[in-house]
């Protein structure tokens, strides 16, 4: 750095931030990509990591390694916590709690969404969400440890609690998790235990709507529901999970019927999303409007009204017709890079036009939904299409080959190669030996920290 080239600061190395940074590689600007995790995570395959099919290395890639071919792009580890739009400066926090500052000429906010507990933050301690690698590992620990703990117990209600899994939210992630736990129980784990019969594991899927996968056409979701029922997933619609405890959930009916308690030691939460804390703070100091989930209203070129130097892309961009999917983030990243190049060339910016290339959802081995315009596929053909799309967008050639190899091995044999979970260090007071993972407690603590930062900011 240290020259007069415009400085572009991108917050977040997900689909939006990474595609923007890549497109600005080689352009006459200095790009800094700041990410709190320093790696790009392929979120659509997080559930396969959580249920032991893939490793975290197969679904993620170091941003530094990914962007090494672009000398004008710097990647930095840190969490953006404060924005000063007048000074055009962002304050970032290192993981050791110390701070540093980054100045910009252009700011691209691509920090994504996080799991929402609809104001019931205390649920997070017992019901991990599914947004980060930490979440995936936390879920892996809880699911596999539940079977292991059940094996040590005599038959009875306590053992049954460990063999009952509750999933809140029947969108793609909830459906994928529910289906995978039943597949795990009936295939990979079926013949490995001596005391319990893993096939008896109950998987309960709760949703406030009237069907699974609401964003797909009803004909497709009917097929998905039949397949889930065949797998043994118990679906409950028109309900919301109104309480989560160490040993169970309460489910309330939306039509005013009586509440019902279910005894379970594993609750997974995929029910809603909200803007990350930095985005809420940024909207406030920029004077930008937000929707209920905290998405920031943007102009047609994806810049914030009144701040043509600040863009918002991906899941955080609040504009009609922009869905929270990877394709929107990738296209937004490329569009903003194009706007910056046009500014440098002194030509007018173009409006962002999102092109819907379709969506896909995995149901079970050999079954997936694929919907692209008039094309609607289910079953094996949908599954092959789903696999092709996911491999095409997975970051890193090595990850693509190793994921294909792992999938082929797990089709040929029932086993799952990445079941290892961590239960804490031996004799370490800071890492107690517990199924109640330090990871998910850390997640809870970090939500508290975020709120504290926000209030302080
Ligand atoms: C489990 C799951 C499954 C999904 N499946 C699909 C699918 O099948 N198909 C599909 O199209 N979409 C899917 N999605 C949605 C898709 O992943 C998102 O739409 C997409 O990732 C959004 O990209 P983004 O760049 O806006 O944000 P993200 O990809 O979420 O990236 C945000 C980045 O910002 C970083 N960050 C956050 N806060 C800060 C901060 N304060 N400072 C610095 N860095 C920060 C994070 O570390 C992260 O790297 C799925 C999402 C999830 C969670």
TrEMBL record:
Lineage: Bacteria, Bacillati, Actinomycetota, Actinomycetes, Mycobacteriales
This protein's name: NADH:ubiquinone reductase (non-electrogenic)
Catalytic reactions of this protein: a quinone + NADH + H(+) = a quinol + NAD(+)
Family: Belongs to the NADH dehydrogenase family.
Taxonomy, superkingdom: Bacteria
Basic and acidic residues bias (residue ranges): 445-457
Domain FAD/NAD(P)-binding, residue spans: 7-333
UniProt-listed Pfam families: Pyr_redox_2 (PF07992)
Region Disordered: start-end pairs: 437-457
Family matches, as InterPro entries: FAD/NAD-bd_sf, FAD/NAD-binding_dom, NDH-2
EC number: 1.6.5.9
Record's signal peptide: none
Entry annotated with the keyword Nucleotide-binding: no
Keywords per UniProt: FAD, Flavoprotein, NAD, Oxidoreductase
